[in-house]
Amino acid sequence: MTQLNDNSESVDGTAAQPPASGPQYCTLDRGLDLVSGKRLTHVDIVYETWGELDEQGTNAVLICHALTGDSHVATGPDRNGVEKAGWWDVMVGPGMAFDTRKYFVICSNVLGGCSGTTGPESIDPATGLPYGLTFPLVTIEDMVNAQVAVLDHLGVQQLVAVVGGSVGGMQALAWAKLYPQRVRTCIGVATTPRLGAHAIGFNEVGRQAILADPNFRGGDYHGKDQPEQGLAIARMVGHITYLSDESMRAKFGRRLQDRAYHAFDFVTEFEVESYLAYQGRKFVDRFDANTYLYMTKAMDYFDLASGFNSVAEALADCDVRWLLLTFSSDWLFPTYQTKGLLDALRATGKEVSFAEIPSPYGHDAFLLEPEEQRRYIEPFLDRALCDARLAAGDSEECETR
Fold this sequence. Notes:
Helix content is 35%, strand content 15%. It is an alpha/beta fold.
C-alpha cells in the first residue's frame, strides 16, 4: 500500500493516486429472486471501486447512482482502460468529501440498468434474444439485493456508509431498512421515502412519450432503430424537473437562439428550446429506452413504509445513524418529503442530522453544490469511520484525529 503524508502525496513526492479498479463484474450464476415473485436465472452486475479496503474492513462506502447514472462515479479507467471523469467527481476522489485515500468507495450499475448490469437490453438465456419488455419489473429493493451480492463478492461485511442522491438516495434508504446490520450510517441526499403524485406524473409523461414512438415496437427494437424521439422527449421533460424556475430564468430567460426576431413558425427559436433539444439528442446516444421505463417504474413503486403501517414502524429496529440533506429549490424531491422521514426517525429515537441547503439549482443541486454538501458529509463520515475502527479494536486511529 502507498504510504501517504498529510499533503496527500506519496513519500517519494509524487501525487497520490488511490487505485481505481475500472469496470468489474460480479456474476450471480444462481440467479436472483425479485420482489414481484419472478426470478432472473442469471445476473451480471458491473461495479467499480476506488481506494483500498483497510485490514479491518471498516472503511467501505457504497455510493448508489441516480436514474441515468452508472458505476463510474469518479475518475478512473473505463472499459477500454482510458481514464475518464466520473459523474460525481466533485464529491469522490482524493481530498473530496468521499476521500478515496481514506475510504474504499464502491459503486455498481443498478439491476435493470443499461451500463453493464443485467437489464432489458441483456440477452435472455431462455431465448438467446434481448429481453425487451419480457424483462421482469424490478424494484428499488431488488437493486439493493443485487448490491448486497457485490459486497459479498468483495468480502465487505459492513459499510461505514451507504449514500445516494435522488433515486440513489432511495436505494440508500432501502439499505438501511432491509440490511441495518450491514450499514453503520445512511446518507440520503435530495431524496424521498416515496414519490408524490407530481413526480409520478412526470415519470408517466416520459414513459408515454417512449411507448407512443413508432420505433418502440413493443420494446422489441434491438437491432433496429431505437425510439429516439420518444426517449429524447422523456429526457427533455425529466430535465425540466431537475432544474428550478430560478436557475432556468438565470440560464435562459426568454432569449432567442441565433436570431433577433420571432420566427412565427413551429421551430426551435428560444435558447431553452435549443438546450432541451440538445439534452434529448445527447441522451439517446448513451441510454436505453426500455431501461428508462423500468427505472421510472421502480421509482414510482418505492415506498419506504411498504409492508408496515408507517415509515416509523418500518425503521423501528433500524440501528443506523442518519444524515439527510435537501435543497431549497428542489421541487422534484421537495424538502417537506424528507422532513416526513426526519420526523419518523426522531419519533423512534434515531440519531439523525438534517440540513436544507440553500441553492438555486433545483434537484440537480446534489451534482452542483459539492462544498455545501461536504460541510456536512465529511465530519459525519469521519465520526462514522472512527466509530467503526473503535468497534474493531483500533483506538489509535481515532486518537490521532
